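ugh ok fine here u go
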Amino acid sequence: MEIDDLTILKYITPESVNILRTYLEKDSRTYSILEKYEEISYLGPSEKFFFLFKEHEKFINRNHETINKHSDHLLSVMGLLFMIETNGYMTGNCSIFDPVYGEYGRIIPPDNSFPEDVNIEYKLTNNDSVICIIDIFFNIEINKIMRLVMERYQDHSYYGKAEFLNYDIAFNDLDVINLYPFLFKGTKELESHMNVISEKFNFSDKNKIIDNFQIINNKIHLVFEEITSRTKYNYIKCYNYFNFRFRALRYADENDELLKHLDRFFLPRKLSKYDPQYYITFFIVSIDFELPELEFVKDYNKKYYFHDDINIFHSVYGYKELLTHIDEVDEENLLKNDIKNMLNSSKYKNLLKVNIDLKKTIILFDGFIDKCLNGNKQLKKDFKDLFKFITDESITVFPTTNELTVENIKYIMRFFGNYKSIEFDYNISDLQYLLTHFANKPEEDKNTSIDRAHRMDRFKLDRNVQNELNSLIR
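structure:
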């Protein structure tokens, strides 16, 4: 196989190919690993993951001095990959601050965020830079495999967390079991997580609860033997891209100076699979690239040693006790849920006052969704349910939606500002609380960038679009 067939070439600038070729001619061991990875492309996720993890650790050990010297740079590149959001731009030499705004708001192509796609190219300058891009390459491919497996079952309403829609089915997936420990910072965090989610297992036959928990316990226990057998290491690393992306986006959102820093490396690129009239977010980086702050990604690539006596569910007696009393507590739990719904209902209803009739409110938000949120039919239904909940005292269950991003919430905050003290009455902090909980993103309630969006021109709609929406109700 020639070097021209290696996947790593996708991540370097064209003029860097000869530098990589010269390096690999001398480091035949690394070249053979990159070549072998291409040859095993037909294998399943687990096989490819363990191959990459094992060979990556060997590569780090062989080049530990160089990698340690450039550790902040390597973390910075991974941090950039986690935080990149794709936008459309008109020219290839524009600023990062100049995304295209169309008739219905900002032009945003289909999501191609890391690790599915990598919107950077690395410019090689010397042997150290080659070692760095190879290290980055291993991490990119490992994260791609992790996402491929975990997305099979991921519940996207839990943004920033690994939460499966159906744990019973997921833990019958061999790839999930093999890779699941690599979503956590060590076995203690895994144990804690498993105990928290234990109540989410939905076994139809209550008499089999203990048996099923024991089966899962054995699977998790045995996977550590599998990790040691396949990698020859007694530690794991955390590749939870859900969490790292969440932290990276929050860091980018709350750091006003960051965009100025990144603008120096920003070079939009035309990508054939998107609208050919627009350039797409792209960065060119080299070995001198560093982010101004790295706390959000400091624990990436750390080793977490595991112990032999890991036991996910400790209290088997507790589950037996649960079976004994489950019938007695069912009725009590129903009553508690009714009380909880009543309290939540009162709390949410008082956050927003609607001063126009329900029909006009629904017409207004249907128009907004058509103009600004791609006419999302499910979101229309969800907003209709929200406003019915707010205006009808008999409805006690607070509705939620999985269709809103943080960026969407910012536009909605700004949109509400055009109707404040007329069609709607609210406090800004109350509105943020309502929208973030409606969007199943309660962790964003204190996100200061959402609060600021209420008065920022960046999130203001085109005047003609706003006039059209106003005409629907005024």
